[in-house]
Automatic annotation (TrEMBL):
Organism placement in taxonomy: Bacteria, Pseudomonadati, Pseudomonadota, Alphaproteobacteria, Rhodobacterales
Protein name in UniProt: Phosphonate ABC transporter substrate-binding protein
Family per similarity comment: Belongs to the phosphate/phosphite/phosphonate binding protein family.
Gene3D superfamilies membership: Periplasmic binding protein-like II
Cross-referenced NCBIfam families: 3A0109s03R (TIGR01098)
Domain of life assignment: Bacteria
Pfam families recorded: Phosphonate-bd
Keywords: Signal
Cited InterPro entries: PhnD (IPR005770)
Signal peptide (UniProt feature, chain positions): 1-24
Gene Ontology process terms (BP): transmembrane transport
Source organism per UniProt: Roseivivax halodurans JCM 10272
GO cellular component, one term: ATP-binding cassette (ABC) transporter complex
Amino acid sequence: MPKDTIFGTTALAALALTASAAFAQDGCENRGQLDEQYCDANGDLVADAPEDESQLRNPDTLVFAYTPVEDPAIYEDIWTPFIEHLEESTGKDVQFFAVQSNSAEVEAMRSGRLHIAGFSTGPTPFAVNLAGAVPFAIMGADDGRFGYTLQVYTQADSDIQEMADLAGKRIAHTSPTSNSGNQAPRALFPDLGVVPGEDYEVNYSGSHDQSMLGVVAGDYDAAPVASEVVDRMAERALYDPEEVRIVWESDPFPTTSYTYAHDLAPELKKSIEEAFFSFDFEGTVLGEEFEGVSKFVPITYEEQWAVIRQIQEANGVEYTPEGLAAE
């Protein structure tokens, strides 16, 4: 199966076309935000498996994709140990396909050409609602922790003690499209007593690194940043942790969701889950690439993506092909 037939450059157009041609399932009493071709009778926010067993799929070859990255060829090698484990667990051949965009990845699952996929944090709700993806796992640590947090940093000797104190200060956001660096603050901060863009002027730094270094240098009074970026900066000694302190920290945001298509046969779904949850990261190139990760942790879209849905709703995101293109 040639890669360009799965992840073509016209994926967004195809997604829009199939969305308009979708037909409603007869007797579907609850659909929520799902596309017309899916139903959610149990209310768990993801597409139900087809009731007609003839519509369930159990392909001989499974297609697996990881979220778009700068160098897909490198990640194909990184994922090789897991793919071999997945083949052994399912008894099927598994093909890795490098995706070129979030739109192409969503369309590939929607059209039935992609069976298992890792979707980035923001695009996951689009995959769920437009493509029938069912998130079931995420990378985590031995103790079950996963994801990253939004942290608000200021100088160690700053007079900023709580979030309301950000009013009238010089605050750095990273970029308009950043989740933790802009969209999450705009969605969450009002409930904490300060409204970005109203109570303080938003200064875009360009990156989490620049926001943090700007706080250290005194260019900004405070900045919302992603914990994982700040941790890596500290490990590289790019700043002295003693020079700053945290004003506020969010609950964890999820990272990449690992999903399967809603219409796979139940026994196949079970074997896929077993493959993920039995995989040992230790001593593999996958474990080396994702430092601090030791296993896949079970999750649900309804629970772990609640904060992401809240943030996207507050920012006017709509789960349509056009909304996906804007991500």
